[in-house]
Amino acid sequence: MTINLEVPKKFEQLVEQAHAAAAEFFRPNSRKYDQAEHTYPKELDMLAALLDGLSASGGGTGAGGVRRGGKKEEKPGNRNGSNLQLLLGTMEMCWGDVGLLLSMPRQGLGNAAIASVANDEQLERYKGKWAAMAITEPDTGSDSGAIRTTAVKDGDYYVLNGEKIYVTSGERADCVVVWATLDRTLGKAAIKSFVVDRGTPGFELIRLEHKLGIRASDTAHFRLENVRVHKDNLLGSPDINTEQGFAGVMQTFDNTRPLVAAMAIGVARASLEETRRILEEAGVVIDYDRPAQTQSAAAATFLQLEADWEAAYLLALEAAWMADNRKPNSLQASMAKAKAGRSGSDITLRCVELTGSLGYSENSLLEKWARDSKILDIFEGTQQIQQLIVARRLLGKSSSELK
């Protein structure tokens, strides 16, 4: 069996355009907006308009365009669709700067949530909107199933009360997808997602966080106090299905976790390329025709890091391909995210180590990439959560059986 790992021809133009944007805007402005934390890069509006144009013409898609698989009436066979397309574009953009990608209008994780589970009317209503996603709470940490924000039915509305932290693009977004529980006593099955428009009474921005990395991206803390949301803003079914459990809202992660993996892969590739350049200028020869143990320590380490990167890259491709081909990919999405998140952080830190003072100073972007990559091992489910999910899938255990 032959596997072709080249970029599909129909995606070549998108990948080239994404790389050009990364090289001509993201990379040159990376340090500027890292230092000017919470300053919105207005130049991104032009790039966002370009992406919108690509989506409208069928030549591309943003996070808001990701849907599972193709149409059911399509001919059987392998497909390379929107998930793989977005994955490849994300890698290229994050080769430039992951914080700036996360700051792109209308490309938020909330857009991916809406695209994953919204009905046709909701898709049309929120078309062109920038949507953030609010899951994490002060008292829940990585356990999304322990959400305390409540949603109480009141006629045609739900009344939301609670607190949300670490909301990416929360200040800049037009709306926020908020996870809340309809009944705490029913556990994960009662958790639903609601689209809350910014400016809704009671939906208060408390503060913006100062962060280790991805400083170009704003990260918000919200309080919801008697926020009234119309029932039409609930994504998916309003019914509580204890047999289905958490599956409804968790479907979002099957699409977004490979994207976070792609972010880590893009940052790690940038670090490897810069490290190779610095090592070669220092006279270090990296020879692919000789065993690593017969080369210098620096060359052997670099080869090990490249192999680690390749494994993460292949896992991410698999997860996206499975989504495009209507195959359940929860296991593969978590494997890709776990591998890429950990590898991205390890690779960027080792690249700083390999390049010494050149990597540690602000004369290069290596130290910034090391800072940026850490969050990619944390958000959308931490390393430990991903490993737990993988173990449950492989062993056939439920969340109550394997904690």
TrEMBL record:
Where in this chain does the record put each Acyl-CoA oxidase/dehydrogenase middle domain? 132-227
Q: Where is the Acyl-CoA dehydrogenase/oxidase C-terminal domain?
A: 244-395
UniProt entry keywords in alphabetical sequence: FAD, Flavoprotein, Oxidoreductase
Listed PROSITE patterns: ACYL_COA_DH_2
Q: Which GO terms describe its molecular function?
A: acyl-CoA dehydrogenase activity; flavin adenine dinucleotide binding
Pfam families on file:
Acyl-CoA_dh_1, Acyl-CoA_dh_M
User: Where on the tree of life does the source sit, at the highest rank?
Assistant: Bacteria
Region feature (Disordered): 60-82
The record's InterPro entries line, in alphabetical order, gives: Acyl-CoA_DH_CS, Acyl-CoA_Oxase/DH_mid-dom, Acyl-CoA_Oxase/DH_mid-dom_sf, AcylCo_DH-like_C, AcylCo_DH/oxidase_C, AcylCoA_DH/ox_N_sf, AcylCoA_DH/oxidase_NM_dom_sf
Entry cofactors: FAD
Q: What protein family does this chain belong to?
A: Belongs to the acyl-CoA dehydrogenase family.
Protein's recorded name = Acyl-CoA dehydrogenase
